[in-house]
Amino acid sequence: MKPVLIDCDPGMDDAVALLFALGCGELDVRAITTVSGNLTADRCSGNARRVLDLASAPHIVVARGPLKPLVRPYPRDPFSHGSDGLAELEIPISTRPEDSRFAPDLIIEMADAHAGELTLVALGPLTNVALALIKDSSLPQKLRELIILGGAFGFGVGGSQRATGDNPASEWNIYVDPEAAQMVFGAGFRLTAIGLDVATHPSVELSAFHRQKLIEADTRAADFLLGVIDFVERRRFKSYCGLIDALAVAAAIDPGVFGTEDVQVAVETQSALTLGQTVVDRRENFRWTHLPTISAACTVDAARFFDLLLPALCAPASPKR
After folding, report:
1. Inter-CA distances, 151 with 102, 179, 222, 277, Å
2. For 6-42, what is each residue's pLDDT tens digit?
3. Domain extents for the chain?
């Protein structure tokens, strides 16, 4: 199995992504680190441990990062994940201890331990990754790959119509800590970004068939996703809101779920109107040559995604009773 470390900010869609990663049978989740994003890193740590309890995964450590971004105050998420951050599904508080290590230090330690084989999946703002990079500039060469859920790259209108940052042009994870994103994009990681262009695509919606499969499965993980979907739909959002971060996990399991394109991209760090926007330079003439190049998802095979997701959540390894 592929060793992975998941840096996240649970958040209900992060929680679904964690259950997906733990249940897929393809990923060896070595550790979880939490970052301030949907909630502050301490609350995200508590939620990650609650999800691990739900998935009966006592061996996985959880360490947290700082309570705010690199240089900015922590902003308020305009999209509520509920009073508990987990769609108010009454998931029990965990009694398992938090790992004492600082999240960026644990990222470096795991990268060293796995010698070019570790995949880092970042589902939240990139604060922890940037801090790890500041401490160890060779981190990009130590990782097999970095997969992020973040940004929007101009592949269709979804990235702007369904923008999640607190302005008309940005995605939440990049908006929270644009300086961290700018640093990570330019560091030389083998980086694949799953942006809003594909993570909110209309094809990534739970159908009646999918919902019936989850109901029939009668597992904790399936019930959790159904509860999340009910929570978002009661608030007049679409079901993709509960699945966004799971797309990045799918990229770690099967890169063929996505078509990708190399893009030259910058992150806006100054404008109040577009703070956190990922700006892609596609000009035929006069294109800037100093922008970093990353790989961005441009298409998604939703059927292939659901063929991975549903068995992972419906597997009988995590029975409700």
Report:
1. 26, 13, 28, 7
2. 999 999 999 999 999 999 999 999 999 999 999 999 9
3. 2-314
Greatest Cα-to-Cα distance within the chain, rounded to the nearest angstrom: 62
Domain spanning 2-314: CATH 2.60.410.10: no
* Angle between helices 208-217 and 220-234 in degrees, nearest 10: 140
Contact 11, 39 (CB under 8 A): yes
User: What Rg value do the Cα atoms of the chain yield, rounded?
Assistant: 18
What is the residue type of 169? A
Instruction: For the chain, give the secondary structure using H, E and C.
Output: CEEEEEEECCCHHHHHHHHHHHHCCCEEEEEEEECCCCCCHHHHHHHHHHHHHHCCCCCCEEEECCCCCCCCCCCCCCCCCCCCCCCCCCCCCCCCCCCCCCHHHHHHHHHHHHCCCCEEEECCCCHHHHHHHHHCCCHHHHCCEEEEECCCCCCCCHHHHCCCCCCCCCCHHHHHCHHHHHHHHCCCCCEEEECHHHHCCCCCCCCHHHHHHHHHHCEHHHHHHHHHHHHHHHCCCCHHHHCHHHHHHHHHHCHHHEEEEEEEEEECCCCCCCCCCEEECCCCCCCCCCCCEEEEEEEECHHHHHHHHHHHHHCCCCECC
Return d(Cα 91, Cα 106) in angstroms, integer: 27
Spatial distance between the Cα atoms of 217 and 240, rounded to a whole number of angstroms: 20
What confidence tens digit (pLDDT) does each residue in 225-257 have? 999 999 999 999 999 999 999 999 999 999 999
Q: Let me know how long the chain is.
A: 321
Q: Side-chain half-sphere of 174: how many Cα atoms within 13 Å?
A: 34
Distance CA 126, CA 250 (A): 19
- Taking only the tens place, the pLDDT of each residue in 157-168 is 878 888 888 899
Q: What are the beta bridge partners of residue 3?
A: 28
Q: How far apart are CA 203 and CA 189, in angstroms?
A: 29
Quick check: pTM over 0.85? yes
Tokens encoding 226 = 């159904």
